[in-house]
Structures are given as structure tokens and as C-alpha cells.
Amino acid sequence: MENFKFYSPTEFVFGKETEQEVGKLLTRYNAKKVFIHYGGGSIKKSGLYESVIKALQAENIDYVELGGAKPNPVDALVYKGIELCKKEHCDFVLAVGGGSAIDSAKAIAAGALYDGDFWDFFDRKASVEKALPVATILTIPAAGSEGSSATVITKESAGLKRGMGSDLLRPKFSIINPELTMSLPIWHTAAGIVDMMSHIFERYLSKTKDVILTDRLCEATLVSIMEAAGTIMKEPNDYEARATICWAGTIAHNGSLGVGRQEDWITHGLEHELSALYDMTHGAGLAVMFPAYMQYTLEEDIERFYRLATKAFGVPENHFNKKEVALTGIERLKSFFKDIGMPTTLKDAGAKKEDIPKLLKTLEQNLGQSFGSFKTLTIKDAKKIYELAWE
Amino acid sequence: MENFKFYSPTEFVFGKETEQEVGKLLTRYNAKKVFIHYGGGSIKKSGLYESVIKALQAENIDYVELGGAKPNPVDALVYKGIELCKKEHCDFVLAVGGGSAIDSAKAIAAGALYDGDFWDFFDRKASVEKALPVATILTIPAAGSEGSSATVITKESAGLKRGMGSDLLRPKFSIINPELTMSLPIWHTAAGIVDMMSHIFERYLSKTKDVILTDRLCEATLVSIMEAAGTIMKEPNDYEARATICWAGTIAHNGSLGVGRQEDWITHGLEHELSALYDMTHGAGLAVMFPAYMQYTLEEDIERFYRLATKAFGVPENHFNKKEVALTGIERLKSFFKDIGMPTTLKDAGAKKEDIPKLLKTLEQNLGQSFGSFKTLTIKDAKKIYELAWE
């Protein structure tokens, strides 16, 4: 086990009707003028927007708002948000939505108290030294941004999708009402499920030995996610299954499931190029990339994949042929992704084979010649993984 | 699943030699004059005391100190600590030790900024509205106080052992170096193991249905604790097993394993009377009370005990006789407690049978006529449970 720091200071307020507490929570955190950031019109259709505004008015909290956050949130909206936030002297940023709204809200919160270009944080030219406090009302369980320090933004002009993180960007509080996720289209529900499972895989596939408690916590969460996913595909309004998915999405990314070992994140790197080039849904891209990555790195640690197959994916033990069991596990994962309606090949996902060199070029720009910790990969390896993912 | 709040803002700094970071951490949290609270002489013998003082001096942090915290920490030391803390104008409380040092440090931190008698908080006459910031260096994995809001103090003159909690008392940071726990006598290691397992049982034995993710996380932690306990009994210096026990003890009580359901805590109530009357080690008292409590409440929810037996204690499934499987589970738990050297009857633990009425009297004083949520118990039920625990 490696030394670690675990820090998850966010106050999670979870359950039915909890969005109605937002006004009181903001008051408790001394918010006077809130910058509300959200995505498309869905929160207006669902009535959530109105509930939030009412809750703020009841506490005499002033606000300005900016909608329009889209999947793979872009720099243009962040610039706009920062400008508005500075102009209006907001002292708190509230994201209402999924990972995109939360991620751009975090970038706005950091940029609002920074004199330079906010992209400096993503370029590693500056680190976040202060930021407006952030809170969230989650509507899409997926990215785990409601409990994480991270934000991922796409710089459209350069076709770059990059992430950065700071403890200052961890939400002060996050409101998670599973009922709000029931109206999500099945496609988005499924993409979110892949996303949170991937956050666990990036931590589970590690070179660090002897972190058996973390292993078991990861497996417990994976089993619960897959079980709840099966329920939701049949009964989208099942509260308990929705609640399981919501909480699993949060703990999959607040650090709980990574303690004590080196994390990898290279499959996210491989996927980021896909969503930057094609504006592909992040979860769909991960459903394509993870089975290919696992297949390619299998020999690196057959025991690890054997454990994953038997403890998380229900493949029967067979100590005489661990590699076969491990491979069956990867196949099961692929079938599961198909069963919930996700693409599992680049072809199905709408990519073009002739774009692979382009993907590799930006990958190299972002990550250099060599990357990954579970298995050290080169650009040549990345090429093979993209090809493996093709069909 | 019930609505819940999960809030664990403590920064956990975990691993080898992490105690050396205490000076830098205190500086980061703006400590200028630290009140150091610890137990007996063990931290002086082990060299930990010296390391801490060196780390403080390196950062020019002033300090005063008070040793003497004992298991089942008492009000007298808390009064002494509060007086010293006020007199010396300390602005930060650092506990170095196990649950006792941490619990009295928390009471001191709350009392230092309160004009009345600190026991008011435990009497429910006042609630904590401000407190000095607290941090910990953990040396005994057991109570989970390093990540919890709670403190339990014994008022010796009245023979009362009571708890209270406040988010203001959650440690700002907790340093956990598993190496520091290697020198713990096996008896204390074992008592700590029972304590942390009990923190999980109090949450696992619940009336709330459909919290399957939390169930699985509890089971994963219990399995890991029992496995690591077996290793430590043979190899007390096994770092990985010590690390598992340390982290399990923390997550068993920072709220992670209770989300979404009603918790019980009545077995802790039954045990508190034992440690108040006999100054019994808390973990030893719990090793006596939990099997008796489980046996007594078995019929309340056989499915729950069946799940515990099969998923956490390794009893083979048998759907034709779930009650027998459930009972076998309780027997296995009792054997495990015996195997790690704990008493499992009141007689073994050195209690006197004629004291049972005395135990019931203070229990009634503390909890009233009726208590418990998994099964609602009366004083008559409590009498039967103490009798069941006798031999």
C-alpha cells in the first residue's frame, strides 16, 4: 500500500426533495450573490429551475444565471461565465446539472478570481490559488464532479480536452436527489454508468499490491452499479436503483476507491481525444476504449484481471486457466455495455478509421511519447489500442 | 433508502512517517499555539512525542501539553484541560493517541470556548456552537474518533458514560501511520478490532431496506478486518495488515458505512454501562455484548443475519434453513472474538452477576424506558440480554 491523502470535505445532502434545501445551505455558506450555471432547458422543463429560484428567494439570496453548458464543456462558455461573474460581483457559484455544468462552473469559479487567462490552469502555466466557493445540484450521475477536485474543459480552437484539479474547487455542498435523475434518457443514464465504472477501473487497474480493502470496496461498488443498471433498464423510475447509481457515481470519484495505490487514467486520456474530435459522449467513448485497453494490457497482470472477472463480473473461478477467466471477464464487461445500449467499437461509435493518426497526434500533444502507470504505453501502443477498438 | 447527509471533511494523511508532516499541517491550518493532549508514557517511549515536538519547533509553533488520558476518559482531565487551554490561550488542539486522547481533546476543544460547564453538552443542556480546531495523530485504530464528530466521556462522580457530537469537532486533519500501531499489545489491537467491527454492526443491523451498496461496503470492510486480524495475530509487524486495520477503523466510523439507513447504537449503550462500572476496555465489553444482542434480536430479521453470516463471516448458503445459517454466523463471530483473545461472556470479562440491576439502573437513567431502532427494547429486554451475555 502506498501513502495517501484522503480529503473529501464536500457536504453531501442526499435524498428525496433535497433540492429544496439549497437556499438554507447557501445561507449557511454565506452566499450573498450566486452565479447559477446550468445546461440546456431540461431543468426548466422539469421544474427544478423554479424550485431553486424559489429556495433562493426565500432566503433573500441574489443571483445571476448562465445556461448553455453542453457535454464536453467548452472554453467559450467559461470565458463568458468568468466575465459575467466578475461584472456582477458574484460570491458563490452554484452548478445545477451534470458533470458538464459542474466542470465549467469550477473553471468559472477559479477564473473569476484570476487576472490571467483561465486556460493557464489547464496548460499548467498557473495553479489555482483562490476560487469562489462552488456547490452543486446534481441531475446526471456520471462524472463524479459533485465530489471531486477536478474539471475537464475543451479548448475548441485547438481541439484540446484537458483536465486540472484543486482542493479549492471541491464543492462546499452537493445536493443529490435520485428522483431528479429518473427523467434522464436511457442513453445518458447508460453513458453515466460507464463513466462511473471507468472511474473505478482507472483506480483498480494499478501496479500497487496489497490494497485488499480498497479492492473489495471497488468490487462491491461495481457489482452494485451493474445490478442497479439492470433494474433501471427495466424500471427507469425505481428509486432505490437510481439512488444506488447516484451514490456509486459520487464515491467512484471522491477518492474513496483509490486510497493507497497509484491510479492510472490513461484510458480517459485515450477517450478524451475521441470526445474532443467527435464531440462523442464521454461514457460512450469509454465503453469503446475500456474493453480494448483491458485486452491490450491483460498480460501485464493476469491475476488482477482474474480478480476483477471473478469478484466483480461474476465469472466462475478456475485456477487452472486464469487467463481464460480474465478474458471472459472482459467479454462480460463488453456484453454489459452492449446490454445497456452503449457502443463497444469505434466503428459503432461513429468514428472514422482514417482519423486514428489525428487522434494519436493530439494524444502526443497532450501526454507526450510515453504515458500510463499500470502499463507504460507509447504512441505505438496507443495506435494498437485504437485499432483493437475499431471493430 | 433514507435521505442522508454525508460529511467527512477531515483531511486524512495516511502512511509511513506521516507524523513528520504534523508541523507543516498545523501551519497550513493557522495554528500558533497548540494544546497537545496525549495518554500515558507510550508516546514518549516510542519516540513519537519527540518527533511531534521537533516538527512543531521546525515551524516555530508554540505549545503546551497535558498527558494522562486513559481508556474511558474522565471528566476530571477534561476540566483540567479546559482550564489550561483557556489560561494559555491555545488556538488549536492536537490529540496524540487513541480514541481516549482524541475524545477528551474534543471535549476540551468545545469547553475551551464555552463559558458554562462542558458537561452541559453531554447532558443536552447546550449544543456546541464554537470549538477550537482539533487534529489528531492516531496510535490506536479502534474508536474511529479521528474521523468522527463524536466524543464519549465518563463523569466519574455519577458513574455516567455519555456521548455527544458536533461537526465542529471533526478533526481538521488526522495523521495515521500504521507503523505506529505495531507496538500496540495484542490485547489492545484485538479490542480495537472489536470496536471497529461494532461500529459497522450498529449500522448494518438496521430496519431500513434497500441499501444494498452500503451493505456490500460494510461486508467488504468486515471481511478485510477479520482477514487482517488473522495476519496480525501471527505477524504483529505486517505493515499491510496494520494498514488495513487502520483505514478500516476510520471508514467504519466516518459515516461512509452508514449512509441511507437508520443506525442503532443500542449495543454501545449496553456496553457503556459496563465500561463505566468496571472501567472495562470498550472493545472487550463489545465482544461480550454483540453476540448476546445478535442472538436476542435474531428473530427480528433473520434475512439480515443470514446475509451477514454468508457475506461477511463465510458461512455457506443454505436457503432451506436460514435461521440456522444466521445462528452459525453469530457463533462464528463469537469464535473469532475468542480467537483474537477477547472475552465473550460477562463472567470472563470480570463482571459480577449481582451488578446487573445496577447496570440496568444507569442504563435507564441514560436511555429511558425504551430504546433501540433495529428492535425496540425495554429495560426488561436489556436485562435478558445481560443475562444471555453472562456465560
Molecular structure report:
The structure is a homodimer of 391-residue chains. By secondary structure, the first copy, chain A, is α/β, with parallel strands linked by helices. Chain A has 2 domains: 11-180, 3-Layer(aba) Sandwich (Rossmann fold), CATH 3.40.50.1970; 185-388, Dehydroquinate synthase-like - alpha domain (Dehydroquinate synthase-like, alpha domain, Up-down Bundle), CATH 1.20.1090.10. In chain A, 48% of the residues lie in helices and 14% in strands. Chain A contains 15 helices and 10 strands. The first copy, chain A, has helices spanning 22-28, 42-45, 48-58, 75-87, 99-111, 119-122, 186-204, 212-234, 239-251, 266-278, 282-297, 302-312, 322-339, 356-367, 379-388; strands spanning 4-14, 33-38, 62-66, 92-97, 134-138, 150-155, 160-165, 173-176, 370-371, 377-378. In chain A, the strands form 3 sheets. A 6-stranded parallel β-sheet of chain A has the order 1-8-5-4-2-3, with helices on both faces. In chain A, strands 6-7 form a two-stranded antiparallel ribbon. A two-stranded antiparallel ribbon of chain A has the order 9-10. In chain A, helix 7 packs parallel to helix 9 and helix 7 (186-204) packs parallel to helix 11. The interface between A and B is large, with 38 and 38 residues.
